[in-house]
Design goal:
Number of domains: 1
Order of helices and strands: HHHHEEEEEH
Number of helices: 5
Number of strands: 5
Distance between the termini: 50 Å
Strand content: 15-25%
CATH architecture: Alpha-Beta Complex
């Protein structure tokens, strides 16, 4: 296969994420009490992360639950996410799972963080300082207003 033929194909990580998303959708459609089961799935995913990512994901989970109680945890492409009316507003991606040097915390268009012609949609997270937690909290509060 030459470079041109390979340019449109998905990487192994991307294929795995898509398979996880399909499995998540199937699981969601079969559930009765979706919110409690979805939160268990998120907490299980966080518990299975490498220690550094687990610490960050746990703290982000706590921040979301504390400052955005209207958002419901769910898995999204195999990673923790938080949704309103079933639509993902924000998400955490494990750097270790993605084989990256940092994790990511991001927002979808559903967060409506628009601020003029330029605004952030995701952040690299290597550690959560008090300043980073404050920034995340402010963005979460804007996202659910």
């Amino acid at each position: 296969m030459n470079a041109d033929e390979n340019a449109g194909s998905l990487s192994e990580l991307e294929r795995a994420a898509l398979k996880e998303r399909v499995a998540e959708l199937k699981k969601e459609s079969k559930r009765g009490d979706k919110s409690a089961a979805a939160e268990r799935d998120v907490l299980e995913k966080i518990a299975a992360m490498e220690p550094a990512d687990r610490a960050i994901a746990t703290r982000i989970h706590d921040l979301v639950r504390e400052h955005s109680p209207g958002l419901n945890p769910k898995l999204w492409y195999g990673q923790p996410a938080y949704a309103r009316s079933g639509k993902v507003v924000c998400f955490f991606r494990s750097g270790a799972d993605d084989k990256e040097r940092y994790s990511t915390f991001g927002f979808t268009p559903e967060a409506q963080l628009d601020d003029g012609g330029l605004w952030p949609t995701s952040f690299a997270v290597a550690e959560l300082t008090a300043k980073a937690e404050k920034a995340i909290t402010e963005l979460l509060e804007r996202a659910v207003d």
